[in-house]
DNA sequence: CAGTGTATGTCAAACTACTGACATGAGCGC
DNA sequence: GCGCTCATGTCAGTAGTTTGACATACACTG
Protein backbone atom coordinates (compact mmCIF):
# COMPACT_ATOMS: atom_id res chain seq x y z
CA UNK A 1 0.00 0.00 0.00
CA UNK A 2 2.64 2.51 1.00
CA UNK A 3 5.29 3.45 -1.49
CA UNK A 4 8.88 2.44 -1.32
CA UNK A 5 11.78 4.78 -0.90
CA UNK A 6 13.09 4.14 -4.34
CA UNK A 7 11.39 4.73 -7.68
CA UNK A 8 8.19 6.51 -8.54
CA UNK A 9 5.03 6.01 -6.57
CA UNK A 10 2.67 4.51 -9.08
CA UNK A 11 -0.49 5.18 -7.11
CA UNK A 12 0.01 8.94 -7.15
CA UNK A 13 1.93 9.30 -10.41
CA UNK A 14 0.05 11.32 -13.00
CA UNK A 15 2.10 9.63 -15.67
CA UNK A 16 1.07 6.18 -14.59
CA UNK A 17 -2.56 7.17 -14.18
CA UNK A 18 -2.48 8.77 -17.59
CA UNK A 19 -1.20 5.57 -19.11
CA UNK A 20 -3.79 3.55 -17.23
CA UNK A 21 -6.64 5.79 -18.35
CA UNK A 22 -5.39 5.76 -21.91
CA UNK A 23 -5.10 1.99 -21.86
CA UNK A 24 -8.62 1.60 -20.51
CA UNK A 25 -10.01 3.97 -23.10
CA UNK A 26 -8.15 2.18 -25.85
CA UNK A 27 -9.47 -1.21 -24.74
CA UNK A 28 -13.04 0.06 -24.56
CA UNK A 29 -12.83 1.68 -27.96
CA UNK A 30 -11.32 -1.39 -29.56
CA UNK A 31 -14.11 -3.45 -28.03
CA UNK A 32 -16.90 -1.35 -29.56
CA UNK A 33 -15.09 -0.78 -32.86
CA UNK A 34 -14.17 -4.41 -33.48
CA UNK A 35 -17.75 -5.53 -34.31
CA UNK A 36 -17.73 -2.82 -36.97
CA UNK A 37 -14.49 -4.12 -38.41
CA UNK A 38 -12.57 -0.99 -37.50
CA UNK A 39 -9.43 -0.21 -35.61
CA UNK A 40 -8.93 2.96 -33.61
CA UNK A 41 -6.61 4.48 -36.18
CA UNK A 42 -9.11 3.56 -38.87
CA UNK A 43 -11.87 5.39 -37.01
CA UNK A 44 -9.64 8.33 -36.13
CA UNK A 45 -8.81 8.81 -39.78
CA UNK A 46 -12.46 8.91 -40.80
CA UNK A 47 -13.38 11.24 -37.95
CA UNK A 48 -10.56 13.60 -38.87
CA UNK A 49 -11.69 13.66 -42.48
CA UNK A 50 -15.28 14.38 -41.51
CA UNK A 51 -14.26 17.45 -39.56
CA UNK A 52 -11.53 18.69 -41.86
CA UNK A 53 -12.10 17.40 -45.39
CA UNK A 54 -9.11 17.48 -47.68
CA UNK A 55 -6.53 16.62 -45.08
CA UNK A 56 -3.32 15.14 -46.46
CA UNK A 57 -1.73 11.86 -45.51
CA UNK A 58 0.83 13.50 -43.22
CA UNK A 59 -1.75 15.70 -41.56
CA UNK A 60 -3.96 12.70 -40.91
CA UNK A 61 -1.00 10.84 -39.46
CA UNK A 62 -0.28 13.64 -37.01
CA UNK A 63 -3.92 13.87 -36.05
CA UNK A 64 -4.13 10.15 -35.37
CA UNK A 65 -0.76 10.01 -33.60
CA UNK A 66 0.85 7.52 -35.94
CA UNK A 67 3.63 7.80 -38.50
CA UNK A 68 2.79 8.93 -41.99
CA UNK A 69 3.86 5.51 -43.23
CA UNK A 70 1.22 3.80 -41.11
CA UNK A 71 -1.41 6.24 -42.24
CA UNK A 72 -0.37 5.68 -45.82
CA UNK A 73 -1.03 1.94 -45.78
CA UNK A 74 -4.33 2.59 -44.03
CA UNK A 75 -5.33 5.18 -46.63
CA UNK A 76 -4.52 2.78 -49.44
CA UNK A 77 -6.80 0.18 -47.90
CA UNK A 78 -9.54 2.74 -47.26
CA UNK A 79 -9.31 3.95 -50.84
CA UNK A 80 -9.32 0.41 -52.21
CA UNK A 81 -12.48 -0.33 -50.20
CA UNK A 82 -14.19 2.87 -51.27
CA UNK A 83 -14.28 4.77 -47.99
CA UNK A 84 -12.15 7.68 -49.16
CA UNK A 85 -10.91 9.18 -52.40
CA UNK A 86 -7.66 10.81 -53.32
CA UNK A 87 -6.70 12.49 -56.57
CA UNK A 88 -4.29 10.44 -58.64
CA UNK A 89 -1.91 13.38 -58.88
CA UNK A 90 -1.23 16.36 -56.72
CA UNK A 91 -2.60 19.67 -57.97
CA UNK A 92 0.16 21.78 -56.55
CA UNK A 93 2.85 20.06 -54.50
CA UNK A 94 3.00 16.41 -53.59
CA UNK A 95 0.10 16.70 -51.17
CA UNK A 96 -2.89 14.52 -51.98
CA UNK A 97 -6.01 15.88 -50.25
CA UNK A 98 -8.28 13.09 -49.05
CA UNK A 99 -12.05 13.20 -48.79
CA UNK A 100 -14.72 10.87 -47.46
CA UNK A 101 -17.02 9.06 -49.86
CA UNK A 102 -20.70 8.64 -48.98
CA UNK A 103 -19.87 5.10 -47.98
CA UNK A 104 -17.11 6.37 -45.72
CA UNK A 105 -19.52 8.82 -44.14
CA UNK A 106 -22.05 6.08 -43.47
CA UNK A 107 -19.40 3.87 -41.96
CA UNK A 108 -18.25 6.70 -39.76
CA UNK A 109 -21.76 7.35 -38.48
CA UNK A 110 -22.05 3.95 -36.84
CA UNK A 111 -18.54 4.20 -35.45
CA UNK A 112 -19.15 7.65 -34.01
CA UNK A 113 -22.21 6.40 -32.17
CA UNK A 114 -20.22 3.54 -30.70
CA UNK A 115 -17.33 5.75 -29.67
CA UNK A 116 -19.65 8.36 -28.24
CA UNK A 117 -21.20 5.73 -25.99
CA UNK A 118 -17.75 4.94 -24.63
CA UNK A 119 -16.99 8.58 -23.99
CA UNK A 120 -20.36 8.99 -22.27
CA UNK A 121 -19.56 6.11 -19.97
CA UNK A 122 -16.08 7.46 -19.31
CA UNK A 123 -17.51 10.83 -18.30
CA UNK A 124 -20.23 9.17 -16.27
CA UNK A 125 -19.24 10.13 -12.74
CA UNK A 126 -17.87 13.56 -13.53
CA UNK A 127 -19.51 16.94 -13.22
CA UNK A 128 -19.13 19.52 -15.96
CA UNK A 129 -16.66 21.41 -13.81
CA UNK A 130 -14.56 18.32 -13.28
CA UNK A 131 -14.56 17.69 -17.00
CA UNK A 132 -13.43 21.24 -17.63
CA UNK A 133 -10.66 20.84 -15.06
CA UNK A 134 -9.55 17.61 -16.67
CA UNK A 135 -9.50 19.25 -20.09
CA UNK A 136 -7.38 22.09 -18.76
CA UNK A 137 -5.00 19.73 -17.02
CA UNK A 138 -4.52 17.57 -20.11
CA UNK A 139 -3.89 20.61 -22.29
CA UNK A 140 -1.32 21.84 -19.81
CA UNK A 141 0.50 18.51 -19.84
CA UNK A 142 0.46 18.31 -23.60
CA UNK A 143 1.82 21.82 -23.89
CA UNK A 144 4.56 21.16 -21.35
CA UNK A 145 5.72 18.05 -23.19
CA UNK A 146 5.68 19.70 -26.61
CA UNK A 147 8.96 20.13 -28.39
CA UNK A 148 11.95 20.50 -26.05
CA UNK A 149 12.63 16.83 -26.21
CA UNK A 150 13.89 15.10 -23.16
CA UNK A 151 17.64 15.26 -23.61
CA UNK A 152 18.92 18.67 -24.76
CA UNK A 153 22.56 17.65 -25.36
CA UNK A 154 22.51 14.85 -27.90
CA UNK A 155 19.08 13.83 -28.99
CA UNK A 156 18.47 14.26 -32.70
CA UNK A 157 14.78 14.37 -33.56
CA UNK A 158 13.20 11.00 -34.02
CA UNK A 159 13.70 9.86 -37.60
CA UNK B 1 -11.58 25.83 -35.54
CA UNK B 2 -15.30 25.37 -34.95
CA UNK B 3 -16.66 21.85 -35.05
CA UNK B 4 -19.05 20.37 -37.49
CA UNK B 5 -22.47 19.12 -36.55
CA UNK B 6 -21.54 15.54 -37.25
CA UNK B 7 -19.03 13.46 -35.35
CA UNK B 8 -17.16 14.23 -32.17
CA UNK B 9 -15.55 17.59 -31.57
CA UNK B 10 -11.89 16.77 -31.26
CA UNK B 11 -10.89 20.04 -29.68
CA UNK B 12 -13.12 19.51 -26.67
CA UNK B 13 -13.15 15.73 -26.53
CA UNK B 14 -11.60 14.38 -23.37
CA UNK B 15 -10.95 11.11 -25.18
CA UNK B 16 -8.95 12.79 -27.89
CA UNK B 17 -7.03 14.97 -25.45
CA UNK B 18 -6.32 11.90 -23.36
CA UNK B 19 -4.88 10.16 -26.37
CA UNK B 20 -2.85 13.21 -27.31
CA UNK B 21 -1.42 13.58 -23.80
CA UNK B 22 -0.65 9.90 -23.61
CA UNK B 23 1.05 10.03 -26.99
CA UNK B 24 3.17 13.02 -25.97
CA UNK B 25 4.15 11.37 -22.71
CA UNK B 26 5.02 8.18 -24.52
CA UNK B 27 7.22 10.01 -27.00
CA UNK B 28 9.04 11.91 -24.27
CA UNK B 29 9.62 8.79 -22.23
CA UNK B 30 10.88 6.87 -25.24
CA UNK B 31 13.25 9.73 -25.98
CA UNK B 32 14.86 9.68 -22.54
CA UNK B 33 14.80 5.89 -22.20
CA UNK B 34 16.32 5.16 -25.60
CA UNK B 35 19.85 6.31 -24.66
CA UNK B 36 19.64 3.84 -21.78
CA UNK B 37 18.66 1.03 -24.11
CA UNK B 38 15.23 0.65 -22.57
CA UNK B 39 11.69 0.63 -23.81
CA UNK B 40 8.75 1.88 -21.77
CA UNK B 41 7.46 -1.60 -21.06
CA UNK B 42 10.98 -2.59 -20.09
CA UNK B 43 11.17 0.25 -17.59
CA UNK B 44 7.65 -0.31 -16.32
CA UNK B 45 8.46 -3.91 -15.55
CA UNK B 46 11.52 -2.96 -13.50
CA UNK B 47 9.69 -0.19 -11.67
CA UNK B 48 6.87 -2.57 -10.80
CA UNK B 49 9.31 -5.13 -9.48
CA UNK B 50 11.11 -2.55 -7.37
CA UNK B 51 7.91 -1.59 -5.63
CA UNK B 52 6.36 -5.02 -5.37
CA UNK B 53 9.03 -7.71 -5.48
CA UNK B 54 7.89 -11.19 -6.34
CA UNK B 55 5.25 -10.18 -8.84
CA UNK B 56 4.31 -12.89 -11.33
CA UNK B 57 4.38 -12.60 -15.09
CA UNK B 58 0.64 -12.03 -15.34
CA UNK B 59 0.62 -9.45 -12.58
CA UNK B 60 3.46 -7.56 -14.24
CA UNK B 61 1.58 -7.66 -17.52
CA UNK B 62 -1.48 -6.09 -15.96
CA UNK B 63 0.64 -3.47 -14.24
CA UNK B 64 2.38 -2.52 -17.45
CA UNK B 65 -0.82 -2.65 -19.54
CA UNK B 66 0.34 -5.32 -21.95
CA UNK B 67 -0.71 -8.92 -22.47
CA UNK B 68 0.93 -11.63 -20.41
CA UNK B 69 2.39 -13.01 -23.63
CA UNK B 70 4.24 -9.78 -24.31
CA UNK B 71 5.48 -9.57 -20.76
CA UNK B 72 6.62 -13.15 -20.98
CA UNK B 73 9.01 -12.55 -23.86
CA UNK B 74 10.30 -9.42 -22.12
CA UNK B 75 10.91 -11.34 -18.89
CA UNK B 76 12.80 -14.02 -20.77
CA UNK B 77 15.09 -11.35 -22.22
CA UNK B 78 15.51 -9.62 -18.86
CA UNK B 79 16.33 -12.90 -17.19
CA UNK B 80 18.78 -13.81 -19.93
CA UNK B 81 20.56 -10.46 -19.49
CA UNK B 82 20.64 -10.76 -15.73
CA UNK B 83 18.24 -7.99 -14.72
CA UNK B 84 15.74 -10.26 -13.01
CA UNK B 85 15.57 -13.80 -11.67
CA UNK B 86 12.81 -16.32 -11.64
CA UNK B 87 12.78 -19.75 -10.02
CA UNK B 88 13.03 -22.55 -12.54
CA UNK B 89 9.95 -24.20 -11.12
CA UNK B 90 6.93 -22.89 -9.29
CA UNK B 91 6.88 -23.50 -5.56
CA UNK B 92 3.15 -23.85 -5.34
CA UNK B 93 1.09 -23.30 -8.48
CA UNK B 94 2.37 -22.28 -11.86
CA UNK B 95 3.23 -18.79 -10.70
CA UNK B 96 6.89 -17.83 -11.02
CA UNK B 97 7.64 -14.89 -8.70
CA UNK B 98 10.13 -12.49 -10.25
CA UNK B 99 12.70 -10.39 -8.41
CA UNK B 100 15.21 -7.74 -9.40
CA UNK B 101 18.91 -8.53 -9.38
CA UNK B 102 21.40 -5.91 -8.16
CA UNK B 103 22.12 -5.21 -11.80
CA UNK B 104 18.44 -4.72 -12.47
CA UNK B 105 18.20 -2.32 -9.55
CA UNK B 106 21.14 -0.28 -10.80
CA UNK B 107 19.66 -0.15 -14.27
CA UNK B 108 16.36 0.99 -12.85
CA UNK B 109 17.96 3.83 -10.92
CA UNK B 110 19.16 5.64 -14.00
CA UNK B 111 15.86 5.06 -15.75
CA UNK B 112 13.86 6.38 -12.83
CA UNK B 113 15.85 9.60 -12.82
CA UNK B 114 15.21 10.05 -16.53
CA UNK B 115 11.50 9.33 -16.23
CA UNK B 116 11.15 11.57 -13.23
CA UNK B 117 12.59 14.46 -15.22
CA UNK B 118 9.91 13.92 -17.84
CA UNK B 119 7.18 13.88 -15.24
CA UNK B 120 8.58 17.03 -13.68
CA UNK B 121 8.45 18.80 -17.01
CA UNK B 122 4.94 17.51 -17.66
CA UNK B 123 3.75 18.91 -14.36
CA UNK B 124 5.62 22.13 -14.94
CA UNK B 125 2.80 24.59 -15.41
CA UNK B 126 0.36 23.03 -12.97
CA UNK B 127 -0.35 23.97 -9.39
CA UNK B 128 -0.70 21.28 -6.74
CA UNK B 129 -4.44 21.74 -6.78
CA UNK B 130 -4.58 21.28 -10.52
CA UNK B 131 -2.51 18.13 -10.21
CA UNK B 132 -4.87 16.80 -7.58
CA UNK B 133 -7.83 17.60 -9.81
CA UNK B 134 -6.21 15.82 -12.69
CA UNK B 135 -5.51 12.78 -10.54
CA UNK B 136 -9.12 12.67 -9.41
CA UNK B 137 -10.40 13.04 -12.94
CA UNK B 138 -8.19 10.29 -14.32
CA UNK B 139 -9.19 7.92 -11.53
CA UNK B 140 -12.83 8.65 -12.23
CA UNK B 141 -12.41 7.87 -15.93
CA UNK B 142 -10.50 4.68 -15.22
CA UNK B 143 -13.14 3.53 -12.79
CA UNK B 144 -15.96 4.31 -15.19
CA UNK B 145 -14.33 2.32 -17.99
CA UNK B 146 -13.53 -0.68 -15.79
CA UNK B 147 -15.20 -3.95 -16.53
CA UNK B 148 -18.53 -3.72 -18.32
CA UNK B 149 -16.78 -3.81 -21.61
CA UNK B 150 -18.33 -2.15 -24.58
CA UNK B 151 -21.26 -4.35 -25.39
CA UNK B 152 -23.39 -5.70 -22.58
CA UNK B 153 -25.81 -8.35 -23.88
CA UNK B 154 -28.66 -5.90 -24.34
CA UNK B 155 -26.73 -3.19 -26.18
CA UNK B 156 -26.05 -4.17 -29.75
CA UNK B 157 -24.09 -1.46 -31.52
CA UNK B 158 -26.41 1.41 -32.13
CA UNK B 159 -28.06 1.17 -35.56
C1' DC C 1 19.77 31.35 -60.41
C1' DA C 2 21.96 27.49 -57.63
C1' DG C 3 22.07 25.55 -52.86
C1' DT C 4 20.21 24.36 -48.71
C1' DG C 5 16.65 22.97 -45.66
C1' DT C 6 12.26 21.23 -44.77
C1' DA C 7 8.12 18.49 -45.85
C1' DT C 8 5.76 15.23 -48.45
C1' DG C 9 4.35 10.40 -50.51
C1' DT C 10 5.76 5.86 -50.91
C1' DC C 11 8.24 1.44 -50.88
C1' DA C 12 10.49 -2.21 -48.15
C1' DA C 13 12.10 -4.60 -44.10
C1' DA C 14 12.06 -5.15 -39.05
C1' DC C 15 9.80 -5.09 -34.97
C1' DT C 16 6.37 -4.98 -31.37
C1' DA C 17 2.33 -6.36 -29.32
C1' DC C 18 -1.64 -8.68 -30.21
C1' DT C 19 -5.05 -12.86 -30.89
C1' DG C 20 -5.56 -17.78 -30.78
C1' DA C 21 -4.59 -22.03 -28.66
C1' DC C 22 -2.81 -25.52 -25.55
C1' DA C 23 -1.59 -27.85 -21.14
C1' DT C 24 -1.24 -27.40 -16.33
C1' DG C 25 -2.69 -26.28 -11.59
C1' DA C 26 -5.71 -24.20 -7.96
C1' DG C 27 -10.35 -23.30 -6.06
C1' DC C 28 -15.05 -24.44 -5.73
C1' DG C 29 -19.62 -27.00 -5.59
C1' DC C 30 -21.74 -31.37 -6.07
C1' DG D 1 -13.45 -38.11 -4.91
C1' DC D 2 -15.25 -35.75 -9.62
C1' DG D 3 -16.35 -32.10 -12.71
C1' DC D 4 -16.43 -27.36 -13.55
C1' DT D 5 -14.44 -22.87 -13.76
C1' DC D 6 -10.85 -19.73 -13.69
C1' DA D 7 -5.94 -18.23 -13.87
C1' DT D 8 -1.41 -19.03 -15.22
C1' DG D 9 2.76 -19.91 -18.36
C1' DT D 10 3.99 -20.72 -22.86
C1' DC D 11 4.03 -21.68 -27.90
C1' DA D 12 2.84 -20.27 -32.32
C1' DG D 13 0.77 -17.17 -36.08
C1' DT D 14 -0.75 -12.56 -37.37
C1' DA D 15 -1.91 -7.64 -37.72
C1' DG D 16 -0.44 -3.04 -37.03
C1' DT D 17 3.27 0.10 -36.43
C1' DT D 18 7.72 1.56 -36.64
C1' DT D 19 12.42 2.47 -38.54
C1' DG D 20 15.09 3.18 -42.79
C1' DA D 21 15.54 4.88 -47.29
C1' DC D 22 14.52 7.23 -51.61
C1' DA D 23 12.67 10.64 -54.94
C1' DT D 24 10.27 14.71 -55.31
C1' DA D 25 8.52 19.51 -54.46
C1' DC D 26 8.22 23.84 -52.16
C1' DA D 27 10.40 27.91 -49.45
C1' DC D 28 14.12 30.36 -48.24
C1' DT D 29 18.87 32.43 -48.57
C1' DG D 30 23.17 33.53 -50.62
Automatic annotation (TrEMBL), chains A, B:
Gene3D superfamilies: Winged helix-like DNA-binding domain superfamily/Winged helix DNA-binding domain. Pfam families: MarR_2 (PF12802). Residues 11-147 form the HTH marR-type domain. InterPro entries: HTH_MarR-typ (IPR000835), MarR/SlyA-like (IPR039422), WH-like_DNA-bd_sf (IPR036388), WH_DNA-bd_sf (IPR036390). Transmembrane segments: none annotated. This is MarR family transcriptional regulator. It comes from Agromyces allii. The lineage of its organism: Bacteria, Bacillati, Actinomycetota, Actinomycetes, Micrococcales.
